[in-house]
Amino acid sequence: MDPEPTPPAPPNPNEGRAERIIAVMFLLSAGCTVGFAIGYVVIHLKSIEAVRTSNYVLGLTLAGALTFIGLGMVLWTKLIMPHYDAVEERHDITTPEDQAEFAQVFNRGLDEIAIARRPILRRSLLTAGALLGVLPLFPLRDLGPLPHSTLRRTRWTKDARLTDIVSKRPVHVSDLEIGGLLTVMPEGVNVDDKDAATSPTILIRLRPGENHPAKGREDWAPEGYVAYNKICTHAGCPIGLYEQQTHLLFCPCHQSTFDVVNHCKVVFGPAARSLPQLPIYIDSEGYFRAQSDFTEPVGPSFWERG
Predict the structure, then answer these.
(1) Is there a domain that residue 6 lies in?
(2) Whole-angstrom distance, CA of residue 294 vs CA of residue 181
(3) pTM of structure
(4) Largest CA distance in the chain
């Protein structure tokens, strides 16, 4: 036979005072949270002293927010909720009677918490909890602006001339021997310019007939010259190792390997997709120009979701 639970303790005559103390704990937690937010926004980290002050303010206010809400919950349990002993054997809930008994016990527990009958506690707890829940959003400011569509375009534009990244001179059709390679940028753009880090491109000269373009790209590689983005589609490392005999491009970081004569598809390594190809043409003076920007996002595959 299961032992009967001991009767609940008589009502506490000091519940009103206890309720006010607990509400003060929750409001102090909310105040510390607001103080954290103000300190995070107001203190500018322009000196070592400012960094030290910021650490003190943010550390103390965050500790206060967590401590006061914790104290409030502990005092609620100690001073408001009834205390009694109950023993119940653990068994599977298999019958409607067991399920009804579980629902009764659960509802009795909600009633003992008394949050519905104590608006001052409910409102102060919700205020403290809501502010504390918003707190993690403040550090997102330090992540910088959202990338939006910046990862989906580069500095290449229609008719932009290809220039040698070292000499800064436009690349002429006679500048490369068969098997040669140059890293190029759009004319007038340096690699350290704003939004130019995704623009470096590899220009390679193949023998006539070696290139096997993908469908729709038959006019992207005039006279055997092909241009591919220099950023590996795995982790963003710069690619520059080219093996002329096998026509393979290698990434030095994780050994992803791309087949140049077959639209730079991946033949080895962790890269998930081919290197984006830049459509180019040769103008009337023999200089290389871009037909347009890259038609797909460049860089690591996860950038496509930026």
Answers:
(1) no
(2) 19
(3) 0.55
(4) 102
